[in-house]
Specification:
single chain, 704 residues, alpha+beta, Endonuclease, Chain A, Immunoglobulin-like, eight-stranded mixed beta sheet, seven-stranded mixed beta sheet, 22 strands
């Protein structure tokens, strides 16, 4: 059905080429055949939702398709640092809360942690409440006013989350929540600034509430980043220290580091000495008594590939219970919600102190070798550089006046949305990304806008040759209040999916080619692959057996063409029935699928128009073909409606509206002199049957 994911730093190419294909279950690989891969991906995304919420400073211009949305998040006083993925299939919802950004280092190299929970309609499922907490977190991001994007793109993401909430509600076989004393149990723990009338959320405050009055005998903090000043470090350490503990509590740190070049037997800790001193003071220790596990980029026996510690975690252990929090929160004020707030997401797990799950204690889930990594007499440097992925961007944020940009591919039109009440810079311009665009006039600039009364929207019509372009980001240049030039990327989305064109291989398909693909039994991607390999069977039939008429090329005979159309419509009907029963997915299948009914009807009319003087027989064949498409749609729509389950949307209006639209194509054909009485009567009976099966859309004017 779809996915929504969040990240701080972002590699769009990884998401498009590796993560999305795995989620969508694509057959083709980009390295084996680029065009079949793109066609398969675009077709799959037509019936599936995909959105990435990325920190506004990290928007990636490498996105190549507008079939998924990249939405920028501006967090007041912080950053969007959460790494949450919500994956939804028809019979399963998966919630992943991780430390890894959607980058190649995050997914391929770093030492990270990820918690994956599956929800389904059975007693063995994780309780519904935890999934709903994840949905609520994502809804909060979309509704906070911090997420900027084309209204249609934001609304589609909201609709996807609402549909997921309803789907979870229909699964009555799963438990609604954990029972009061149930272990193991889990809770979603977020960090978020105040928004609207809602209070700020602090992970450490949530941990304190979950932990209650238990006294911790051991406290473990794992973090790759500890803040940049003694004041920051001291605040978060003191907040942790306020947790109930025993007098002989054992505090332990797990931090990144590496072997000393001068003394290879000693470890250099990837955190500054002032953090060690603040930690020691809070726990009543001497600095040299601080226990720390230094996690190296590689250990003896491991490949010599730099696998930096990027996982974050907190572990509390009492005499009876243990708690582990893991996710995106670094041990900093912004990460833990101590006087400052990023947007963060974590999961907290509670279990009995000695319990093992799948042979592992909670502590064993950390990417730490507790014995090997425990450092004796480590070196603590004066300063420590954080991982590149953890360094906040120092670039000025885009002016808030630039709210969104939409791209209408069919019309080659860009629209810039300006946020009312926000001041525009005195000097600014917006261009396509890339060095060459600097030599061209800007798409939008301050020269066309009144600074005192700017409009809410600006529109730019591009050359028609740009219709095939996939514009996913624009580059904004402006002069700051300090009189410095700054640049940033503004993501581009589509207001509605129908504004996009199908893959270029299908832009100019004639009716024969569409029918051939349908009859071949191949998917569009398989058909493109066959064309590239030169293995397309130009006389393919649905059954794949020998057609006795092939030898004489009967394609010009009306009877043969009618027979072929019938087989193709049967194949099309099966594809529609196999479509996910959501409004967006079905609308794509009916109206935008390159092998769908609307594009087939348009192709039939286009072919007919290109053969002037074809005679009454050609007119009758077209009229009959369009009527058969309508009848197929009505029967399929009726079956979709009859298979509708509780909570599923009523999709009959989609079928009725398309039948009415194709009916508008039928009307002028019936006025032709050569159309016989029997065919007119048949078309009238088709219209009546369609109305009986799926009803007529409101305001329909097309005669039978």
């Amino acid at each position: 059905m779809g996915c929504i994911t969040t990240t701080y730093t972002f590699h769009a190419s990884l998401f498009e080429a590796e993560l999305l294909p795995r989620f969508l279950g694509l057959k083709f690989d980009q390295t084996e055949g680029e065009r079949p891969f793109i066609v398969e991906r675009e077709t799959a995304l037509g019936t599936c939702h995909a959105t990435v919420l990325v920190d506004a400073s990290q928007v990636d211009g490498a996105q190549t398709t507008s079939r998924w949305a990249q939405l920028a998040v501006y967090v007041p006083g912080g950053i969007q640092h959460a790494k949450v993925s919500l994956l939804v299939w028809e019979h399963c919802v998966r919630l992943i809360v991780a430390s890894a950004n959607i980058t190649r280092t995050g997914y391929r190299r770093n030492r990270e942690m990820a918690s994956s929970l599956d929800f389904y309609d059975a007693p063995e499922s994780v309780p519904r409440s935890l999934a709903l907490e994840g949905v609520e977190f994502l809804e909060g991001l979309l509704e906070s006013g911090w997420t900027l994007g084309v209204p249609g793109a934001v609304e589609r993401a909201r609709g996807f989350l609402e549909a997921t909430r309803q789907r979870l509600g229909r699964w009555t076989g799963m438990a609604a929540d954990f029972s009061p004393r149930e272990v193991p149990r889990a809770a979603f723990v977020a960090c978020m600034p105040r928004r609207g009338g809602r209070r700020a959320l602090s992970p450490l405050a949530s941990v304190r509430e979950l932990w209650g009055t238990r006294r911790a005998q051991q406290v473990v903090v794992m973090t790759p980043f500890v803040g940049q000043s003694p004041e920051e470090q001291g605040r978060v350490i003191e907040e942790l220290r306020s947790m109930p503990t025993t007098r002989d509590v054992s505090p332990l740190l797990a931090l990144p580091g590496r072997a000393s070049e001068a003394e290879p037997q000693r470890s250099v800790v990837g955190a500054p000495r002032m953090f060690r001193d603040a930690w020691a003071g809070a726990w009543g220790l001497k600095p040299e008594e601080v226990m720390v596990c230094v996690v190296p980029p590689y250990r003896q026996g491991e490949p010599r590939i730099a696998r930096e510690l990027h996982a974050k975690g907190l572990l509390l252990v009492s005499d009876t219970m243990k708690l582990m929090m893991c996710g995106s929160s670094n041990f900093t004020p912004h990460g833990m919600g101590v006087g400052a707030f990023n947007v963060e997401a974590n999961l907290c797990f509670l279990d009995e102190v000695g319990a093992k799950r799948n042979g592992l204690l909670l502590k064993d889930r950390f990417p730490v070798c507790w014995d090997k990594d425990l450092a004796e007499d480590p070196q603590w440097p004066d300063t420590a550089e954080p991982l590149e992925e953890d360094v906040p961007s120092r670039a000025p944020r885009l002016p808030a006046a630039f709210a969104w940009v939409s791209w209408e591919q069919r019309a080659a039109r860009l629209t810039l949305g300006l946020k009312p009440g926000e001041l525009l810079p005195a000097e600014w311009s917006i261009r396509l990304p890339g060095a060459q665009s600097e030599q061209m006039a800007p798409l939008f600039s301050h020269e066309e806008v009144s600074e005192q009364a700017p409009p809410e929207k600006l529109t730019r019509e591009l050359d028609q040759e740009m219709r095939a372009a996939s514009i996913t980001t624009l580059r904004v240049t402006w002069r700051t209040s300090e009189n410095q030039l700054a640049t940033g990327l503004l993501p581009v989305q589509v207001e509605a999916a129908e504004h996009l064109l199908p893959p270029e291989e299908f832009l100019a398909l004639d009716a024969d080619a569409i029918l051939l693909c349908l009859l071949s039994g191949k998917s569009p991607a398989e058909w493109v692959d066959s064309r590239e390999r030169g293995t397309v069977d130009q006389s393919a039939s649905a059954g794949g057996g020998l057609d006795a008429l092939r030898a004489n090329d009967p394609s010009g005979y009306t009877l043969y063409r009618t027979r072929r159309l019938g087989r193709a419509l049967a194949s099309m009907g099966e594809k529609i029935l196999a479509t996910l029963r959501t409004r967006d997915a079905m609308a794509y299948r009916l109206r935008q699928d390159p092998l769908g009914p609307l594009l087939l009807a348009n192709a039939l009319i286009r072919d007919w128009s290109s053969r002037p003087g074809g005679g009454d027989q050609e007119d009758a064949a077209l009229l009959f073909s369009l009527a058969e498409i309508c009848l197929t749609l009505a029967h399929v729509g009726k079956r979709v409606s009859s298979e509708r389950r509780a909570g599923d949307p009523d999709l009959r209006s989609l079928f009725a509206e398309l039948i009415d639209e194709i009916g508008g194509m039928l009307a002028p054909l019936q006025e032709r002199v050569g159309i016989g009485t029997n065919l007119r009567a048949y078309v009238k009976s088709v219209k009546d049957e369609c109305g009986r099966l799926v009803g007529a859309p409101e305001g329909s004017q097309h005669a039978g």
